[in-house]
Every structure is written in structure tokens, then in C-alpha cells.
Amino acid sequence: MSQKILVTYASRGGSTQGVAHTIGAELVKQGFDLDLRxxxxxxxxxxxxxxxxxxxxxxxxxxxxxQHFLSVHEKVxxxxxxxxxxxxxxxxxxxxxxxxxxxxxxxxxLNLITPMDIGLFxxxxxxxxxxxxxxxxxKLMHVPEGxxxxxxxxxxxxxxxxxxITVVTTEDVE
Length: 174
Ligand SMILES: Cc1cc2nc3c(=O)[nH]c(=O)nc-3n(C[C@H](O)[C@H](O)[C@H](O)COP(=O)(O)O)c2cc1C
What we know:
Layout: E1 5-9, H1 15-29, E2 34-38, E3 50-58, E4 61-62, H2 64-77, E5 81-88, H3 96-105, H4 107-112, E6 117-122, E7 124-125, H5 132-140, E8 146-147, H6 151-164, H7 170-173
Parallel strand pairs: 1-2, 1-3, 3-5, 5-6
Antiparallel strand pairs: 3-4, 7-8
Helix pairs in contact: 1-6
Flavin mononucleotide (FMN) binds at residues 11-16, 56-60, 87-90, 123-125, 130, 134, 137-138, 141, 143.
């Protein structure tokens, strides 16, 4: 089996891509060989030993691309080490109640796959970059505006995740 791991992400505004890059960079630092791919560019997960999937919350749910990815690759992923990361504005205050809320928002995905770990991170909203409709939605939903990404927390999560990923070498298989 390949020792390569996959970090894949869905994103609308680009902030989750930034989180994915931080996770990828830390895993490389920890010695992993990895591919970092936009979710729609991933056709096959078989070559990977572990898959780390991330997406933001929009309108109270994980981006549909994440759920779709899990439905398509469910059987193969069930044989692999899988971790999720979720980016949301609910996490701009890291409390047990907010963590519970975010986990409830990704419940349909947790019904498909039980990940080894789930990173919950605050994201970023830049109203000036949103179309008028979404700007109004963000206002109506009282989504906090600004960049709340905590890169140190993201890096620390990736570092402890690295310790959980079991490296299977060809020698182990033989
Ligand atoms: C239109 C819109 C709706 C959002 N809805 C929610 C939401 O329901 N709950 C939440 O916690 N965050 C919500 N957010 C915040 C996003 O999860 C956060 O901005 C995230 O960083 C966006 O990721 P992206 O830049 O990769 O698309 C929303 C953001 C936008 C722009």
C-alpha cells in the first residue's frame, strides 16, 4: 500500500483552502508524503493510506460536495484512516455548545463514515467578496465578519493527527 496521504477540501470563498494548506504543510513537516487536492479534482482515493477531508459550513450544513465525496467513495474510505476538518463561523467561539452544534451540522456525513478525528476551526467571511445575495444572507444570519482562522490551533491539530496516522510499509504487508 502507498504511504501517501490525501488532504482534500471543498471551499467557496477560499478560507478552507487556506486551512487545508496549513494542515498539509504540517503533515509534510511531520514526514508524510501527501497530495493536496480540491475535492472535485479527486477521482480515486484507493492510492492513499489516509484521507483528510475538509469543508466549510454554509447555511447550517457541510458543503454538499463533502457529503457527495463521502457517498461516492464510502466503500473504499471504510478501509482507510479518515479524518475530517470543518470550518465554520460557529467556531469563532470555541465552546462545547458550539462544537456540538457543528457536529450536528455534519451528522449526515458522520452517518456514512466514522472519522478517526475531527478538527473544528473558525473560518473567515469577507462580505466585500460576496455577491449581494450572500451578503444579505450573512447579515440576516448574523454570521460574524472577519478572518477568525487560528493557524496555530490548525497546525497543532494536524501535528497530533500525524501521531494518529499509522504508517503501513510494504515490509509490514509482506
Ligand atoms: C453564505 C454563507 C453562509 C454561511 N453559513 C454558515 C452557517 O450556517 N454556520 C456557520 O457556522 N458558518 C456559516 N458561514 C461561515 C463559513 O463557514 C465560513 O465563512 C467559512 O470560512 C467559509 O469557507 P470558504 O471560504 O472556504 O468557503 C457562512 C458563510 C457564508 C458566506
